[in-house]
């Protein structure tokens, strides 16, 4: 048997995880000198309320190697495939790898997905499909490694305030950018968050997203739309024109959770798809 394990940075809900038979190792959310387990002890809506009502941002941190060890010990007779958030963005991969080394097991396969949030979730769906087809842990590892660079995420950030509060942007740049109504369009490349484009205003941002989509030959079997904040209506005007041009067979809307939402703030919107 093969067991799929992931960290909560994939933004799979606990209900979805149970349905898919995926184990989730929670990231940590630190606020007001308390540490909460992502999704287990703090839900996305609660996190976005904190962001809305406080100037000081929560901090995030990776699970400990001990958390992975405990999970590994739960499945002594199964092959384990562990998919983690990009190691460039978190120490989760290193924690999982250290736990594997300590376990001295050869049937644990750790994947640095080089992805985050919904693009990691896309790979989890692929891993579950392979598991259900009866593939071995090694075969799943090899397949995920071969396709992970094909998974693309394009996101529009609504405000620069949270990037500035988190130290990823200067205060001067954030003020100037917000004044000019600049909407950064970001993605993930080789595990790093990168600015793909910039636009002034929401309409221009959507146009830039289409330009980026046009660069890829897109697999229309599945796409994921995601949003930060408490209200998915932020996606209105974003996904409809995309679906008109790209009729994906399967579509899903995901609320991006505390571990990632902390860093971009509410109001962001994103699409994930696979490029051929």
**What is the C-alpha radius of gyration, as a whole number of Å?**
18 Å
Low-confidence stretches: none
Second rung of CATH, namely the architecture of the largest domain: 3-Layer(aba) Sandwich
Shape: globular
Q: What do we call the CATH topology of the largest domain?
A: Rossmann fold
The computed structural class is: alpha/beta
What order do the helices and strands follow? EHEEEHEHEHEHHEHHEEHEHEHE
In round numbers, the mean pLDDT is 93
Notes on the structure:
The protein is α/β, with parallel strands linked by helices and 276 residues long. The chain has 2 domains: 2-147, Rossmann fold; 150-275, Hypothetical Protein Tm841, Chain: A,domain 3 (2-Layer Sandwich), CATH 3.30.1180.10. The chain has helices at residues 14-20, 44-53, 65-74, 92-103, 118-132, 137-147, 161-165, 171-179, 202-214, 239-245, 258-264, and strands spanning 2-7, 22-25, 28-31, 34-37, 59-61, 79-84, 108-112, 151-156, 182-189, 192-200, 218-227, 250-255, 269-275. The strands form 3 sheets. Strands 10-9-8-13-11-12 form a 6-stranded mixed beta sheet, with helices on both faces. Strands 2-1-6-7 form a 4-stranded parallel beta sheet, sandwiched between helices.
In short:
The protein has 276 residues and is α/β, with parallel strands linked by helices. The protein contains eleven helices and 13 strands. The strands form three sheets. Strands 10-9-8-13-11-12 form a six-stranded mixed beta sheet, with helices on both faces. A four-stranded parallel beta sheet has the order 2-1-6-7, with helices on both faces.
